TrEMBL record:
CDD domains: STAS_anti-anti-sigma_factors. InterPro entries: STAS_dom (IPR002645), STAS_dom_sf (IPR036513). It holds the Pfam family STAS. The lineage of its organism: Bacteria, Pseudomonadati, Pseudomonadota, Gammaproteobacteria, Alteromonadales. SUPFAM superfamilies: SpoIIaa-like (SSF52091). This is Anti-sigma factor antagonist. Residues 14-101 form the STAS domain. GO terms for molecular function: anti-sigma factor antagonist activity. It comes from the Bacteria. Gene3D superfamilies: STAS domain (3.30.750.24).
Length: 101
């Protein structure tokens, strides 16, 4: 599977990792990954360490996720971006909407 999730046992951190291509082909898996947050207001980390490709549908999925969960989480971070992926996020001004580490 190209999308995996890990919620810490205390429910305070949710990490969603995207492996390979982040495009429309993973839309359902990505939605499932953030659909169940638990009772805590976790910090959410989108780990793009293994993301080789990101297209406009991925940007849309990130925006939809933010809209759906923003009030139910402490913060949303995009982490471990490759240079090419970071460039797309910067051009799209996602640094104004997400914490990019």
């Amino acid at each position: 599977m190209s999308v995996s999730r890990h919620l810490t046992s205390d429910g305070k951190e949710l990490t969603i990792s995207i492996h390979g291509k982040f495009d429309f082909g993973v839309v359902n898996d990505f939605r499932r990954a953030y659909s169940s947050l638990g009772d805590e207001k976790p910090r959410v980390y989108i780990d793009l360490r293994e993301t080789e490709y990101l297209d406009s549908s991925a940007l849309g999925m990130l925006l939809n996720m933010r809209k759906a969960i923003n009030e139910h989480v402490e913060s949303i971070h995009i982490i471990n971006c490759r240079a090419e992926v970071r460039n797309i996020l910067d051009i799209s001004r996602f640094d104004k909407l997400f914490i990019i580490d």
